Amino acid sequence: MKRKTSAEQQERWERKVLCFLDKRQWRSKLTQRLLVTFLLAISTGLLLLLAHIQPSITQQLTNSHQVLAVTPSSLSPALRSTAQPHPLPPTLAQWQDPNDSGDYFSEVRQTEVDYLIWSQFPIKVYVEPAKAVSTTERSQSWVRDILQAVQEWAAYLPLEVVEQAEAADIAIRRIAPPLRTSPTGNMPRARSAETRYELYINNAATNPGILSHRCTILLSPNQISQYIQAAARHELGHALGIWGHSPVATDALYFSQVRHPLPISPRDINTLKRVYEQPTRLGWPL
Question: I want to staple 154 with a disulfide (CB 3.0 to 4.6 A). Which of 159, 168, 184, 251 is the partner?
Answer without folding.
Answer: 159
